[in-house]
Amino acid sequence: MNKGKLYLIPSPLGETAFEHLFPPFNSTLIHSLDYFIVEEFKTGRRFIKKMGMPKPIDQLHFFLLNEHTRPKEVEALLEPLLSGFNMGLLSEAGTPCVADPGSLVVNKAQQMGIEVIPLIGPNSILLALMGSGLNGQKFAFNGYLNRDRKLREKELKFYESLVFKTDQTQIFIEAPYRNNHFFESMLEVCSPELKICLGVDLTTDQQLLKTRTVSQWRKEKIDLHKRPTVFLMGK
Amino acid sequence: MNKGKLYLIPSPLGETAFEHLFPPFNSTLIHSLDYFIVEEFKTGRRFIKKMGMPKPIDQLHFFLLNEHTRPKEVEALLEPLLSGFNMGLLSEAGTPCVADPGSLVVNKAQQMGIEVIPLIGPNSILLALMGSGLNGQKFAFNGYLNRDRKLREKELKFYESLVFKTDQTQIFIEAPYRNNHFFESMLEVCSPELKICLGVDLTTDQQLLKTRTVSQWRKEKIDLHKRPTVFLMGK
After folding, report:
1. Per the structure, how many domains does chain A have?
2. Measured between CB atoms, does A78 come within 8 Å of chain B?
3. Are B118 and A141 an interchain contact pair (Cβ–Cβ within 8 Å)?
4. Is B139 on the interface with A (CB under 8 A)?
5. A61-118 pLDDT, tens digit each
6. Last residue of a domain, which of A118, A134, A149?
């Protein structure tokens, strides 16, 4: 029997009309599927409904994947693929497998020789990098830094030194309710001439995408509390 | 006078139906513009025509940006924005400003307080990362390595050591006619247990997106000559 294909399906980053976010093919593809892996049942179902799924939602099969999923459970998630069914893997927000647990499933799928097909959609890291004006020939995404202020500031100094030494743009995210603390640390420890880009509420009406030097940012007042933000450092 | 906005407009990576690649808004937006910055006149005009531009193409204004463009010329490119016109910045393939000269313009635009708005579309680096199953919580794009074989292999060993030390996925591209040499170097110097993902001809009918260990790849025969490829290393 032929194995099914695993489709990686991007979701919105916020409240935005779908015609801004997804190629029409994405909904065509979603309509063809019966099996989905999601991070949360509720948001997964809601998204699939909004994408115009013509089949009754309760006839579809949903499987849960999050950071608590164990390796053995990951294997079980792939059963429908081995039985020949195509599956969709959804992220809570943005593209699956980038800064989310999706890569656990894809990793296993790759090992099992299952065809993996990523679809096009919004990714906040990529959009922020594009719009930052910072070096796009060399960049690193470092995810979350340490929550302890002292340790985080030490890490920020290290990443700043990479920017000045190698011109590699450094990209970070933080839990949205800690954004202000994170940005304060950046302005506290980084050199005045370092450039920082904030990509805030990307793809929504509230979008802010702004690159300034540390010394310029120090003169501005901005509240990032609970606003999804990508932080970038560059020369 | 209000300044214009700079839209970052993705292009196809190969021959693919547009409904697979772009949200419908992208064409709506393109139709509204009269000023475009492109890497090549011919491909830029062809793409805009294919996106259904209702205005005669020869009434539009095209400006050239490539790796030979000097800083002073970059400023001149932004004149229409200062006069209140919106502009579109196009890449030759994929999303502007990632592994292409677009960030020169965006950098200047950010300095001048011009609003920059990235649109959604195909990016080979992101698609390859999503489909690789490698770590998407920490990754670095390193662009092109040295053309000299000895130096390139030294660099590859260094990046491999980063993978094993920090679990940061390492991403590279190469000029397509040199892909086979690059891949040979990887198989030559990297450890048998290192995972390599190839993302080849992404978004097209010929798409290959496959992750295997170095020792598995050594047993396969694959010709990457002139096929656009993203190379990834991971644990």
Report:
1. 2
2. no
3. no
4. yes
5. 999 998 888 888 999 999 999 999 999 999 999 999 999 889 999 999 999 999 999 9
6. A118
